[in-house]
Design goal:
Blueprint (H helix, E strand, L loop, with lengths): L1 E8 L2 E11 L6 E8 L2 E7 L7 E4 L4 E6 L17 H5 L5 H8 L10 E7 L4 E7 L4 E6 L4 E5 L4 H19 L4 H8 L18 E12 L2 E8 L11 E6 L3
Antiparallel strand pairs: 1-2, 1-10, 2-11, 3-4, 4-5, 5-6, 6-7, 7-8, 8-9, 11-12, 12-13
């Protein structure tokens, strides 16, 4: 369960992500610097390892969201989706990452969508995996949003898309500030359909803001709902992009 937003910037981009999980799930670990073979990467992580968003020192960036509208596996998972991004961040190009992606045991993974970004090539891509099939989409380099929800995903995606559209209409051209407002939004009402999601059993558990500008990746991370982030300090970490 997540909302992911992409916004091109001058010689780079911004990527914002609300991570929605069960309230009983252990809290994630704030971003740290990791060695991924010959590459250096920055990402938050699960207590057991793995991640849902990250970038390396070439600016190669990935984010993963679940895909609940597709049939879910009924057997124990043999491979964690959290292991995917750290392996891809070891790569030098998005095409090399795509080759690694094709080797994963997709039949042992619940459905997901993976977003890949290469700022050097201005390439934005999406891979979709639904157990029996994988699909690759080349996307235009422009503002986009992705949504997932374990509760009525189709309706949640529709409501959240309408909220994003209303924000653009109300405030004109999109900016980083407008995306921050979106990710802390409770429109049309605080609950399962709002982008900052609140349910009795689940909620938005963290907010990550990844910005690549002026040759540096900066990741800001708030552990908790983004509606609280304006008044609370965020951890912040930067990584210089290899020339």
């Amino acid at each position: 369960m997540c909302t992911l937003s992409f916004l091109p910037a001058d010689k780079g981009f911004h990527l914002l992500m609300n991570r929605d999980e069960q309230r009983s799930r252990p809290a994630g670990i704030p971003p740290t610097i990791h060695q991924c073979n010959s590459r250096t990467a920055i990402f938050p992580s699960e207590p057991t390892g793995g991640t849902w968003i990250g970038s390396n020192d070439l600016g190669l960036t990935f984010a993963l969201i679940n895909w609940y509208s597709k049939p879910q596996l009924m057997t124990p998972l043999a491979f964690s989706r959290g292991q995917i991004i750290p392996q891809l961040l070891c790569q030098h190009t998005i095409d090399a990452a795509g080759e690694i992606f094709s080797t994963f045991p997709h039949s042992c993974l619940n459905p997901f969508r993976l977003i890949g970004i290469s700022p050097v090539e201005q390439r934005l891509q999406e891979w979709r995996s639904c157990v029996t099939d994988t699909e690759f989409l080349a996307l235009d380099w422009k503002k986009r949003h992705w949504f997932s929800s374990g509760f009525e995903e189709a309706e949640a995606s529709k409501v959240r898309a309408n909220t994003c559209q209303a924000e653009t209409v109300d405030h004109g051209q999109s900016s980083l500030d407008s995306l921050r407002r979106l990710h802390s939004s409770h429109l049309p009402a605080k609950g399962p359909y709002s982008i900052c999601m609140h349910r009795p059993d689940a909620c938005t558990v963290s907010f990550t803001e990844l910005s690549l500008t002026h040759g540096t990746v900066t990741m800001r991370y708030h552990s908790g709902a983004p509606c609280e982030a304006l008044d609370l300090p965020c951890s912040e970490l930067s990584l210089s992009i290899y020339p």
